[in-house]
Write a structure and sequence with these properties.
Elements: H1 2-10, H2 12-42, H3 50-93, H4 96-102, H5 104-145, H6 147-194, H7 196-201, H8 203-255, H9 262-301, E1 322-331, E2 338-347, E3 351-356, H10 362-369, E4 377-382, E5 385-386, H11 392-396, E6 399-402, H12 422-431, E7 440-441, E8 444-445, H13 452-465, E9 470-474, H14 482-498, E10 502-506, E11 518-523, E12 526-530, H15 532-540, H16 542-546
Parallel strand pairs: 3-10, 3-11, 6-9, 9-10
Antiparallel strand pairs: 1-2, 1-4, 4-5, 7-8, 11-12
GO molecular function: ABC-type transporter activity; ATP binding; ATP hydrolysis activity; peptide transmembrane transporter activity
InterPro entries: AAA+_ATPase, ABC1_TM_dom, ABC1_TM_sf, ABC_transporter-like_ATP-bd, ABC_transporter-like_CS, Cyc_pep_transpt_SyrD/YojI, ECF_ABC_transporter_ATP-bd, P-loop_NTPase
Pfam family, one: ABC_tran
Amino acid sequence: MQLLLLVWRQYRWPFIGVMALSLVSAALGIGLIAFINVRLIEMVDTSLTVLPEFLGLLLLLMAVTLGSQLALTALGHHFVYRLRSEFIKRILDTQVERIEQLGSASLLAGLTSDVRAITIAFVRLPELVQGIILTFGSAAYLAWLSSKMLAVTTLWIVVTIWGGYLLVARVYKHMAVLRETEDKLYNDYQTVLEGRKELTLNRERAEHLFNNLYIPDAREYRHHIIRADTFHLSAVNWSNIMMLGAIGLVFWMANSLGWADTNVAATYSLTLLFLRTPLLSAVGALPTLLSAQVAFNKLNKFALAPYRAEFPRPQRFPEWQRLEMRNVTFRYQDNNFAVGPINLTLQRGELLFLIGGNGSGKSTLAMLLTGLYQPLSGEILLDGRPMSAKKPEDYRQLFSAVFTDVWLFEQLLGAQGEQADPQLVATWLARLKMSDKLELKDGRILNLKLSKGQKKRVALLLALAEERDIILLDEWAADQDPHFRREFYQVLLPLMQEMGKTIFAISHDDHYFVHADRLLEMRNGQLTELTGDERVAASRDAVARTA
């Protein structure tokens, strides 16, 4: 299994140590059986030392077995911790476009269901390892007692294991389908939670979602989980009954065929009884390992960025003066919409407004400008120097942004990830009229239950606290009341310019276009600058312009 091979590569020596401890545990278990056979069955030792010796072996076996299981479990949890952490880091390093293609539902399923399945597998792994090691060790001891009886017993156990394998293979098949069904269910859950207001208003839509989307997915999940559990339980019961049958077979070979005496048969039966629980546990643990392999394969299919432990420190350009997009093009993989070629020059300290209809490419341009999307062709230059696609963080560190789908972070961070400037935060809290709305402690926002317009103000505060040179604002004023909207255009934007900020704002507030240094327009994926009469016309009626 790929999963176990990965554990071997990452934790080779700890794994070898755990296996050695498991071997010692198996040897002690077999030694205890041999002690019972020699001292209590064959010799019938009646000395007073036999009980303390037996109890001492029993306690030692318990301690070593528990130690080996705990060591393997701890190793598994270390691996899962590393796997989860690397997965999160890979998400952080993956291009935004790829994350959008995957969707949050499938990624959340990976972080929850898949990682949980791998965790459960490693919790059960000691049972499988213990069962395998004890089986081989006990087989060696039984061969010493009677090779003929071992041959027949081995054949019986092989049939038992083969039957269990066939049943477990069916478990694996249904587990693979279950994992795909979980993605559908997570998407249904997300729709119910995020669309709760619309679904409450429109009960017909809620009924359609419940009956035509959720119920079929839930029934599919129920069908496959029942089938998987059925084959799993069948495998466990098959193994249980066949192991009991092996004990009867041993006494028949000893008494009817005369292959061994009663003492050997009793020792054989005792050994098989000793093996019965580890073997059943091993059969029971196998489906969890198969499920973990399915989960591991699913995580690999996300095709995220390769893991890098470090967060690279971007090169800074404090004295830059001109940013240029030259013949930049972009096309979405899942549809035919394309943007470009785009040619745009930003001078440091400028205030630019961008207008355009829905689907014109405004947001795509914003993603390209900030470096969140990588151009299909063309290049981005800073003071005439091409920015390397291999080190996108060098370019991205120029930007802070407030997007329409704003997400608020609790911690205020300043330049280069340091603590935000308290004076800057206090000043802009007052300017944004949020001083009495937010409670701050050690640079952390304690209350984020705000209206949409207030959340946009907090997002702008977070962006300004980062002290980056360029601020991108995507329809920031759309959720503000008319009074504060006027305050934003006539007071706040000029104050940002006085701070030396370059501002790129997507806006449809035509009454305030006069405040922009330049007015740009996106139409059908093409960018143009509006000047003269065109700018005057757009400033009178931007809605008509973008219709």
